[in-house]
Design brief:
It contains no helices and eight strands. It has 91 residues and is mainly beta.
Length: 91
């Protein structure tokens, strides 16, 4: 089956890579959406393969001591989508 890739980098102030952030990717359609989870590497990077069918996904990023950040990404076919997150410190 053809695949697409949702990838990105997670940063913390003042723009440093954030290792170990939890990334959850959830399809926005379907009866029982299957969540895909991963963790950022030492460079703050993540990559998840998804089916290459038209679909919108919610991408949630969280890490201890930081506020949750969320973005939406649309996949149209076999492609790669790059996202960038800058997490704010929790109060």
């Amino acid at each position: 089956m053809p695949e697409a890739v949702i990838a990105g980098t997670v940063f913390r102030p003042p723009g440093l890579a954030l290792e170990g952030a939890e990334v959850t990717i959830t399809p926005q359609e379907g009866e029982k959406p299957k969540k895909l989870k991963t963790v950022t590497n030492f460079r703050g990077e993540f990559a998840v393969r998804v089916p290459a069918v038209p679909m919108k996904y919610s991408v949630d990023v969280k890490a201890a001591g930081f506020k949750l950040d969320q973005k939406t990404v649309a996949i149209e076919g076999e492609q790669s989508r790059e996202l960038s997150f800058l997490l704010e410190a929790a109060k």
